[in-house]
Amino acid sequence: MFPIRDNIPSRRPPLITLLLIIINSLIFFTLSSASYSTFAGFVYKYGLIPAKITKLVISGVPFSGSDLYPFITSMFLHGNTFHLISNMWILWLFGDNVEDRMGHIRFFIFYILSGVIAGVFHLVFNPISPVPVVGASGAIAGVMGAYFVLFPSARIITLVPTFFLVPVFLPIPAVVYLFLWFLTQLYSGTVYSAIGGTTVGGIAWWAHIGGFISGVLLNRLFLRDRY
Question: Where does the chain cross the membrane (predicted)?
Fold first, then answer.
């Protein structure tokens, strides 16, 4: 099921949501014009590599800024065009309304915090993974978690595939759509952790889970006093 739009118009321009989309897109298309070795080197330097963090923890070596900034920089990198477009579409769909309720600065802080917590979840559940994780999906999952709490009665117009290849668009309650989404992440994360996996198809399941949980639990701390 692919979400197309919701039925809740935002009351104010979603400036931070737009800015995040622009920044992510500019970084991706700038790097995509570089050589493969340059792109890969950038990903390994600024992506989040759990094994690297775990090694520092075990060795007792003090952390430096360069060891910790991947928790933030990784959420502004994407592996391919589909990865970027799918993430930015979901951010646009859910971000404008959440930003509306929080205000621009609060929303930006909330977004970054959700992304960092998502990275921590991925680290905890995949401590020895040498694969660099990149993408905004953990932070966006936080936005989805906030939307789940703040707009449960909203309708998500969703494209549902059928056996006859005829597109069907269904208005699904946000609380149902997002709860089902979270269950799929939890199921996949649990299954692949049980068999010793880390990411499958480039999907960091536990980052999504952690981001969503942070959005559900922390959104109230960032709301405007008045709406």
Answer: 15-36, 71-95, 107-125, 131-151, 163-183, 203-223
